Amino acid sequence: MTASKRGKRQQRRRLENLEPKLDEYQTPDTPWRTSRLPRKEEERRDLIERLIQEAMAEGAFDDLPGKGKPLIFDTNPYLEPGQELAFGLLKRNGYAPEWIERDKVIRRELDAARATLRRAWQAWIDEAAWQVAVTRFEERLTKLNRQIDNFNLVVPVVSCQRSRLRLADEIQRAQQEEPEEDHRNE
What we know:
By secondary structure, this protein is mainly alpha-helical. It is built from six helices and no strands.
């Protein structure tokens, strides 16, 4: 027998043995892999729900630590451990980070200024009185915009920054708001 015939015979034997080996590799051992893998989001949800239900039926969740107790979400995964410790101390003692306190002050002062302007618009006496109210509001708005600028410099998260206030927008807002109902006569 020549070397080429011997090589062809060995190759044929390897091919004959290859098919059972492929079947062995393709046949999964775990039952959840027997069906085709889910391709759509709905199929994935159904598969996950089915696996959870099966695990519950088998008692996989019966002896979990903290069973029957409320979940505690005190940790913030986005903070460094040192910041988390500092913020935790502030929170337990009734304080908040400086930038949050600044934001609260800005909101309170803005609400008060808007309420004053809205009342002036709703109690319209004459043009001169309205102009005085607008001038006073503009002065408050200038101070608030300075506070907003300072706030934006210290806020650690860009998405928490505040936009500057515009006089025209605030006047339009005051003029479009419905009059407050008078509850004194009830």
